[in-house]
UniProtKB/TrEMBL annotation:
Keywords: ATP-binding, Nucleotide-binding, Transport. Residues 5-234 form the ABC transporter domain. PANTHER family: ABC TRANSPORTER ATP-BINDING PROTEIN (PTHR42711). It comes from the Bacteria. This is ABC-2 type transport system ATP-binding protein.
Length: 308
């Protein structure tokens, strides 16, 4: 089955000479959640704008649902729902009318049963007659999603979907996004919340300097690039590390009661067994062990720093 979005050698160069996108190649499969991570100015917004047909690309091709975004822009755009970071609603309009109007703007015939289903899935049905101005920030963001889904798109772009939303509402939004994915909608999100990408995304793409550094399955990415730390709580404080342990990447805490050992999960051997034996030989007694897998934030920072 062909990817729902195909991007081939996509470049975007502005008149100033700035290369916002540099030969980007990316396939996005139907029904997946993919998170795009990158620092400010990395090219995330430009990439989304190019896919949505909002800017003229310099070279390369982008197809959405089989339609070229430049040759068949209306058909390509009809496949896409876009939820921008900024909340833009007619504050004097009701939720119901807002959603119905947006569907009409895409040339779709009225389908109140479908719109009712969308509002119910977003926990907005009981607010359908409320004016947008009366809604909370979290509810307004849900209305934005409902508007983006009103014309039954196959692809949904979420630009910072939980920006400014409290922790409880953020997790509610995650549940909404998963349900959309389960219904067959392909979701591409940008986020500054690293834990959001780690929690929700099937795949993660890292972009910097207009280039895609990698696109990888989330679990595989964590396993391949992650590092682990092992914290060893000692029975008695250690004034200094003995010379016999100098070959290990060990960090002693200020009070001397904790040693931290960092190792690469990709290495054939961790060296832990030998290190524990050498600790015992040095008459250093360990009270407790605690391991910690590096977070996606650690992986992201490592990748970005390597290409800086």
């Amino acid at each position: 089955m062909a990817p729902i979005i195909e991007i081939k050698n996509l470049t975007k160069t502005y008149g100033s000479g700035t290369h916002a996108l540099d030969h980007v190649n990316l396939n996005i499969e139907k029904g997946e959640i993919i998170a795009l991570l990158g620092p400010n100015g990395a090219g995330k917004t430009t990439l989304i704008s190019a896919i949505c047909g909002m800017i003229k690309i310099s070279s390369g091709t982008v197809t959405v649902g089989g339609f070229d975004v430049e040759k068949e822009p209306r058909k390509a755009r009809a496949q896409i729902g876009l939820v921008p970071q900024e909340i833009a609603l007619d504050i004097f309009e009701t939720v119901w009318n807002s959603v119905r109007l947006t569907r009409g703007l895409f040339g779709r015939k009225p389908d109140d049963a479908y719109l009712e289903e969308v509002l119910k899935s977003l926990s907005l049905w009981d607010k359908k007659d409320a004016k947008n101005m009366a809604l909370s920030g979290g509810m307004k963001r849900r209305v934005m999603i409902a508007k983006a889904l009103s014309h039954q798109p196959k692809v949904l772009f979420l630009d910072e979907p939980t920006a400014g939303v409290d922790v409880a509402l953020r997790r509610d939004m995650w549940d909404v996004v998963r349900k959309l994915r389960d219904s067959g909608v392909t979701i591409i999100l940008t986020t500054h919340y690293i834990e959001e990408a780690e929690e929700m995304a099937d795949r993660i793409g890292v972009i910097n300097g207009g280039k895609i550094l990698l696109v990888e399955n989330t679990a595989t990415l964590m396993q391949s690039f992650g590092r682990k730390t092992l914290k060893l709580s000692l029975v008695e404080p250690l004034a200094e590390l003995p010379a016999s342990l100098s070959d290990y990447d060990l960090q002693r805490s200020q009070d001397g009661l904790t040693l931290t050992y960092t190792y690469d999960t990709r290495a054939e051997r961790s060296g832990i067994t030998r290190m524990i034996a050498d600790l015992a030989a040095a008459s250093i007694s360990v009270r407790d062990l605690e391991s910690h897998q590096s977070s996606l934030e650690d992986v992201f920072l490592t990748l970005v720093e390597e290409t800086a």
